[in-house]
Amino acid sequence: MGLELRQQLKLTQQLVMTPQLQQAIKLLQLSRLELVDTVHQELMENPILEEAEAQERTDSPDADAGTATAEEAQISKEAEWENYLGEFSSTSKQSASRESESYEEGTSFEARLTKSASLEGHLHWQMSLSDFTEKDIAIGECLIGNLSSGGFLRIDLEDVCETCYAEIEDVEKVLHRIQRFDPVGVAARTPQECLLIQLEALKLDDDPILVSLVRDHLDDLEKKRYKPLARKFKLSMEDLKSYLDLMQTLDPLPGASFSSGDSFYVSPDAYVYEYDGDFVIVLNEDGLPKLQMNAFYVETLESTKGDDKEYFQDKMRSAQWLMKSLYQRQRTLYKVLESIVRFQREFFAHGVTKLKPLILKEVAEDIEMHESTVSRITTNKYVSTPHGIYELKFFFNSALGLDDGSQVGSESVKATIKKLIGEEDGKKPLSDEKIAEILKEKLEVNIARRTVAKYRTAMGILSSSKRKKVF
């Protein structure tokens, strides 16, 4: 068989993810705070971009049309860049003044923050004020560095001895002192030890019944075996209740009140408020710069030659695409919010119990966009409503059938379950089966017992046996 070379022409179509398209998709997925950081970073790196002055924001979009290049003029026809954020508001002319109101506090972001003390830092501070020797400080640092988020010691004392080259007696002495630091009971090895240390600090460790309940019967108390305990200690149920009330004043997790992790701050991307019987959408523009082309570079671009001209042309295209992508992002976000408000109007009027079932496809068809676009624009986005701040994903929930053939949202059913449990008799808590019957009888919701159990567990609510109150 011979080998030969041939030339062949072939016409094909394929989708190429250009860097500009990747940037547009990335902007859709960014949260508001991430978007602000991205825009500020681009302002620093791209000399063509600059932030518009406050007085220029009310100027006509065509004010600088005479200095614009042909490419810039073409893009300006597609959108008014001076108003690429401000036009996205459904506020009527009568309420236009409300758009200028500040929806967040006027103070700076930094002025409203303070560094929260960590458990380790708090204990180190107390140790530095105590009369510890250098050896004791080394042992104490090893102990403090091996505490859990709840304040319990996660290392064996023998390992501390090996690490610090210390005797077990010295380690136990330092541990004893640290356990009496604030919060009392920190660095305990078991819950029993933690509570016993607190009893000692409160001078309640001279009561043998109380000490025995803490040391030997925490499991019985957790499982609410009150009658056998009352018989064992020859107590009435009222006396046993007084002991339990006293124990409930103790802190089983002394380190939980200290935050050692990073805080997660939420800034709403939009506000929905009621005005004249209708719901108004205002996008959150606070901190997001108004972008415009630098007039100096635009004017001198034509006279620039060589590599400099290629560089500035590339930066201009990048700036124009960023402005277009930001405009498209805000436009898409507004259209999605407008559709959500239409579908979930009862929620915005009455609260979470009126939340309807909704899927991405319904919103996508309503605004004539792809489901993936709706999914991206609702990721890490929050909206401030008359009933609180919610993630946009919250409004998309599954459906449960009603007897009349209609449907109700799962989040609405969860809220109803939470309300029923909150109003129940503590001595006779509602079982999952009973809750399913109530939903069936009163609300005509077709729901199985296992579904009630799944929703209850997802909300962090205990079972009826663990919610039962004996006293």
Give a written overview of the molecule.
GO terms for molecular function: DNA binding; DNA-binding transcription activator activity; nucleotidyltransferase activity; sigma factor activity. Keywords: DNA-binding, DNA-directed RNA polymerase, Nucleotidyltransferase, Sigma factor, Transcription, Transcription regulation, Transferase. Residues 63-73 have a biased composition (Low complexity). Residues 310-469 form the RNA polymerase sigma factor 54 DNA-binding domain. This protein is an alpha+beta fold and 471 residues long. The chain has three domains: 19-54 and 69-91 and 267-377, no CATH class; 119-247, RNA polymerase sigma-54 factor, core-binding domain (Arc Repressor Mutant, subunit A), CATH 1.10.10.1330; 399-467, Orthogonal Bundle (Arc Repressor Mutant, subunit A), CATH 1.10.10.60. It contains 21 helices and eight strands. The strands form three sheets. It has a four-stranded mixed beta sheet with strand order 3-2-5-6. It has a two-stranded antiparallel ribbon with strand order 1-4. A two-stranded antiparallel ribbon has the order 7-8. Strand 5 (382-385) and strand 6 form a beta hairpin.
